[in-house]
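Blinded run. Sample ID left blank on purpose so nobody reads anything into the name before looking at the predicted structure. Input follows.
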Amino acid sequence: MKTIRVILIIYIAMIDFLSGEDVHAQSIQLSHIERIIGFPSAEPGIEKGVSACFAGTVGNTLLMAGGCNFPNKPAAEGGEKRFYQGIYTAQITDNNELHWRCIGQLPAPCAYGVSIPLEKGLLCIGGNNTQESFATAFVITIKEGKACIENYPTLPTKMDNFTGAHYNQHVIVSNGLQLFELDLEHIELGWHALQPLTTKKLGQPISAFVDGSFCQWGGCTPKTETELTALNIAGQSLAHPLKELLPPKDDAGEEIYLGGAAAINLTEDTFVAMGGVNKDIFLEAVNHPQPGYMTHPVEWYRFNPYICAYQKGEWHIVGKEQIAARAGASLAKHGHDVYLIGGELKPGVRTPDIYRLTFSY
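Blinded prediction complete.
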């Protein structure tokens, strides 16, 4: 299978060369999708799939930790959400199978945090469980096949259901209203606050760095006694805080809401975003909840199936795949491959499916 993917990448590159065009000026391409067999199973219930787990790659190792699901009874029937604590690794190979090992434990069961892959390990920030929200930050490293936890400076405040990204030696996390930056070369200085990108706190936005500038899209404001939930569809950039960035559009030209989606940088000026909830169905459900909302079939919720690429300041749709129609999934990059891990297919229903998507750029 690896050979086929390599041939496809070379073929696309040859077309660009023969056409006399600069390959770097071409839009990103999704060249291959492959289902990967295997999901962690050391903790009872986790084998049913989780959403909002920490995930990333360390060398040729895929690492994931935490996450949550409803293992015993569906959420629609009042099931209890379970949060997980295990740290799992699997060796990345050319095969379409992952053999997971539990190599340690998080400090506490946790989901809805931000994970940043570093050369030394996986930086895990914030998150929550049924008891509390966290301001913790730590790096998971692997030594002699076991997970080691190296504590980093804690956030100035507890954060969950937020977003984060890194560029060179800088990590930025954001919930729209609160932004904090950590200089990895001077971690002793801790996190410092940056200017807000929105006037209200956002839940579940996405973010990436574009040409060295932190950008975010998606997310929604919390519903209160006096205000309904509002969606943040346009994007914001630290480089141009007063200028809104356009969102991607679907086949019909309608703006795509990226709340609950997953995003990851492929290069310094290119990232991909996939999944997330449907803006109309989600907004109606939050602001005007109806009985039976959780009981519809998967297709009714119309989660976003588009795989969107942002390159040189413009959005491109590089794929429309039902496997991408999930919310709360995690992404991990290895070379030109991006692993799509878990997530929910509809509110309260998780999946253990993992896919490997190969991009050429």
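Unblinding after everyone has recorded impressions. Confidence is low (pLDDT under 50) at residues 6-25.
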